[in-house]
Design a protein that fits this description.
Blueprint (H helix, E strand, L loop, with lengths): L6 H22 L4 E5 L2 E5 L3 E9 L4 E10 L9 H29 L6 H21 L4
Antiparallel strand pairs: 1-2, 2-3, 3-4
Length: 139
């Protein structure tokens, strides 16, 4: 099989695929975001939540339901910020997987990826990683 990638490109393709797989698995796991609320451990995933608050109308208080369950709909995700984060992160995982699979195909098909396209794709991945890593630092 002929390759359109250099040795560096092949290493980049395999690392991109491993990173894409790890990101997608991490995103779709049920314990994507962990935290605490009302002194209870809570978690939020794309399709699931564990230990979530519910309004008890009979007692006029908020109680914690300490079980895991799936969201009935997209609107059931508790806040607009979580819905936005779910969509943006899901799109990012999809794009990362697309770039990684294209790079892997470049290992097997000649003239699929040019040197310029490879450099641009690598640069975009580098900048995306720097941007996403810099957001959570609080600095």
């Amino acid at each position: 099989m002929a390759s359109s990638l250099t040795c560096t490109g092949v290493v980049w393709a395999f690392l991109s695929f491993l990173c894409a797989a790890a990101s997608c698995v991490g995103f779709f796991m049920p314990y994507w975001l962990l935290g605490s609320q009302l002194e209870k451990s809570v978690s939020f995933g794309t399709f699931r939540r564990c230990s979530y608050p519910v309004r008890d109308e009979s007692r006029q208080t908020t109680v914690m339901v300490e079980q895991c369950g799936r969201y009935a709909s997209f609107q059931a995700i508790p806040s607009a910020e979580w819905r936005i984060c779910t969509v943006v992160t899901g799109l990012g995982c999809g794009l990362l997987l697309l770039v990684a699979l294209t790079a892997l195909m470049g290992c097997c098909v000649s003239e699929l990826i040019s040197r310029t396209v490879g450099r641009v794709a690598g640069g975009i991945q580098f900048l995306g990683g720097k941007c996403s890593c810099g957001e959570g630092t609080g600095a």
